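Appendix B. Worked example

We walk through a single record from start to finish. Start with the input: the chain for GNAT family N-acetyltransferase, Actinomadura harenae, length 156.
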Amino acid sequence: MSDDKIRIRDAEAADAAVIAEIHMTSRSQTMPYLPPQTHTREQVTQWVRDVLLKQCRAWVAVRDAEVVGYAALDGDMLDDLYLRPDVRRQGIGTLLLDEVRRHSPDGLSLHVFQQNTDARAFYERRGFTVLDTNDGERNMENLPDMTLRWTPDTTR
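Next comes the structure step. The output line below is what the pipeline stores for this chain.
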């Protein structure tokens, strides 16, 4: 991780535009196999503000007063964990995931595209295992995905 201090805090409505920017930029730059984005930045910002932040518990990672990533938890389902592409592999995703896990004492599930080998490796290194695979009928991109699950070690 870089020397810059990362702080994780609850996401707020004022973060909606930067969360939308991170969401769109990360998807387009790190998942080139995704269909072209059909929603405008304004539409994604509205979705973040009116749906994501109201239905999910969400956190942002902040470095030098700048939001560089976010995570959203819906029940025990990690809906989103995205970083700005230029801050990947610096430990920020792990900090966000650790925060989400603190709020998921019984475990955590997520969906990941089968083609997203970087994300799959990230989660597998952190104790997630594959529960199922799917042909894509359950996501709007219609791409094969899988469900991963992390269960806390209760033997400690």
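Two observations about the output. The mean pLDDT is 90. Residues 17 and 45 are 5 Å apart (CA to CA).
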